[in-house]
Each structure stands twice: as structure tokens, then as C-alpha cells.
Known about the structure:
With about 500 residues, this protein is mainly alpha-helical. It has 3 domains: about 15-200, no CATH class; about 290-395; about 395-505, no CATH class. The chain is built from 20 helices and no strands. Helix 8 (about 180-195) runs parallel beside helix 10. The two termini are about 30 Å apart. Residues about 1-10, about 25-75 and about 250-260 have low confidence and may be disordered. Pfam families: Fungal_trans_2. InterPro entries: Fun_TF (IPR021858). It is found in: Nucleus. Keywords: Nucleus.
Amino acid sequence: MSLSTVEPIHAVSVSHLLEAEANELVDDVEEIWDSPQSAASGDELSCISIDSPTFTATTSDLDLARSSTPWSLSLPWVPGGSLEENDLFYHYISALAPVMTPIDDEHNPWNSTYPRLAIQWQTSPAACSLLHAILAQSAFQRANLSQASSSKYLRVGTRNYVLALRHLRHSLDSPTEDFSTNLAAMLTVTIAGHCFEGQSAGLTHHVEGAIQYVKQHLARRPWTVSHDAWVITQSFVLHGLISRTTKVDRSDAVASRASNRKKYNFQDTLDEVIADVMANPTFAYTVGSTPHFMKALYQARQLESELSGSQGPPQGRLSIAQLVQVSNILADLNAPMEPDIELYLSRQQERWIQQPSCEPTCTLEERWRYIIAKNLCLFKSGIEIYLFRVVLQYPPSAVAPQVLSTLQTAAELLEPLDRAASVSIWPIFIAAVEAYEPVAQDLADAALQVCSSLGAVNRKTAHDIVKTVWARREGIAAERDCHVGDVQLDWRDVLADLNIDILLL
Length: 505
């Protein structure tokens, strides 16, 4: 594994914050480990530790671990791991990874890059943290999918989550840890805890930690010289962009200085990274989007920040410069999709060659072209709704046709469940939360119920938020004696009222 020399992170040391979080959890976890019920259940997991003599791999093991990706192995494995650890690892690659991205292919990082870095756990605390985060995510999904084994896998997931935090704390204190592995561990901890276990508290802290870490590497820009670093950094950018869409930029005195510092800290860091990452035409493939679409979302967020500084965007009163910004955003959204569809399709064709199907190639191509086009349309529509409804503050009635169309697209994608793939939750949520007509709400309910069945708690939380927004909007309409489609209720204010922080990935 290539190790890079970097300066240790300073500034409200992220590693110390991680240690504090781990300490909050560890007492409960130790009670679980020591409890008679746990001992009798036979579900003990070995605790992987870098200095544990129980786990030693041979030189040939490590050579294979470094040179092979889990996809190429007949059975993914953790060198020196227990049967249950290997079972969780295999579940992560075979069952969880395919539903982490809307368009699964050979380049899915969750069954290639992330596991390949993790199986080198004997070589560094960063890889050890990543491995435990993967095992935690796998266990949390199983806990959500199986009522009979829910408590068992919740214990296993929590245990591995704590260990991931502990090893990550040590890794961040080391000046010689690999950038890609460290960042992969931070992002996987975030996904495991806030998407699959469904934690709300601490999400902003984890996102900020990743921002601080990437900021330390701006001078070296490792994502421009290493494919692994690019893959992981594009995940970081997507985490950042999506997480920012759930935050309200306030220009009034209520917004604290600390909050503003965090906002600009993120914006400055993202500005430095995003051009490099977006230069790759496959950027955003893990969420079923394109560089053009994500650039449009990024610009929409920039426009909202600008508008919040001028006391909001009274509809129809944008400056000429702001109108130009809106025009540029719409131009990116309306860029021809055919080149992107062909790029996605070419990656599927790589898979057909390696894994021949009994289905005729022409039929496969037609089916995947349809799936790819629908996913891209879904994300495009979600950004359009976000732009007009959240940024420009048009009423829900103004985006009702787009909302209905987006939810119909989601229904079409979610209907063939044998496809063994997910659909991005962000555009579905963005459309669902603005639905007020019964037909649109029925489609939203159905889509979110299917999304909730994939074992990630944040999907169910998203569904609950949507229903709360609907109820509040209807209540306001009744109080004002107006049409519900004319009620401008910012769903992010509802999130704040509920004290919920959600990552829509």
C-alpha cells in the first residue's frame, strides 16, 4: 500500500472529537460484550486489532490482498478474520454494495475500491477503521432487514462502529497514513452511522471532520494523481453537496459566527476540489447523475447563499447577474444526455463481456439504456425542483408537474425489483416533500416505502419527514383558508424544528 506523508490534523482536532464520540458509546457496548445474554447467544465477533496476535496473515495473504479486488475473488474474505466477519464482509460486497448505487457496474467502488483498501487492515489503523466501518454498515443493514436477528446484528454493528471510530482516531493522529484509506474510513463511518443505523446527532460533525481532513491535503491534491484517491474524493464531494442541500443559509443575527465559519470553510474547500473531481466525465456515477447536473446543483447552492445575503429572493426580482446564474444552471441541466448515457452504457458492456448473459446483447442494451436514461432524468428533475422551490422560492403549485413526473419516473424504476439496484433517495425526497396532490402523494408513499425496504434507516426517516411536511402544509392552508399548493413551507425549517439532521444518500 502506498503511504503518503502528511501533517497531522490540527484545528479542534478531529481525532479527539472522534475519541469523545467513541467514549460515549463504549460503555454501552462493553455492557453488551459482557452480558450473559450476549455470551449465551453465540454471536461473539472477534475484535480485530492491529496489535492483536490472534490475527496474522502470511506474506502471500498480504500480497493477494494488495493485488486483488474482492470482485475478482470467488469468495471475498478478510485475511485473519473470523467466520462471522467474513460473512459480514461477503454480505457487504454481494448484497449491500449493489444497492449503494442506482446503476451497478464493474466500477462500483463499494465492491472494489473500498473493500480492497479494507482487507489491508493489518498494515494501518486507517484500513482497520475502514474494515470495521464496513462490517458495521453490513451488520446494521442486516439488523434492519431481519426482525428475528435484529438485536444481534445491532450489537455487532455498534461494536464495529465503536472500533472504527477508535482506529480512525489513531489513524488521524499518524502523519504517514494513506489519504485514500483515511478518507474512505471517514465516509464509511458516516454512511454506516447516519444512513444505515439512522443516527441524526453527529452528522454535521462527521461531515466537518472530512472537510478538515481534505483541507489538509489541498496543496498536494492526491485526487489528481491516484485513481483510488479520485474515487474516494468524488464520494466526499457528493457527501458535501448533498448534505449542504439540507441546510438553510441564514443572513439574520440568529446565524452564529461559528455556523458561518463552517459554511465558508466547506465552501472554500469544495471550491478547491470540485473542479478537479468534476473534470472526470464519470463524476457522480455512484448517485446516477452526471458532472453537468452536479455542477448545476453546486451553482444552485451558491446562488442560494448569495440570495440569503441579500435577504432572500423575492420572486421575479432577481438581479441581472442572478438571472444569468439561473440561466447557466438551466443550461447545465439541459445539456444533451446522450453522451452520458453512452458512457454509462459502455461500462455495462464491460460487464457483459466479463459475465456473459443468456439474454441477447441487444435486449440487454435496450433495457440498460432505458434504466440509465430514467435515472439521469430523475436526478435532473430533482435539481430543477430544488432550484425553483427551495432556492428561488416558487410555491409548490409552480413545480407540481415536475413533482408528478419525477415521482412517476421513480415508480417506473422501482417497479422491476429483480434488478437488484437502488434508486437515489435525494431526488425522490426533493420531489416527495413538495407533493400535495393525492396522486403525487400516493406515488411518493409507494416509492419511499420501497426505498425503506433496502435496510437503510435514513430512508424511513425521510418518509417520516415528508409526511410531517405534508401535514404542516395542509394545516397552514386550513388556517389561512388558501390552496395548499400556495403554501411556501421550507422543509429544512421542519428538519430544524424536529432536530433532525439527515444525509440523503
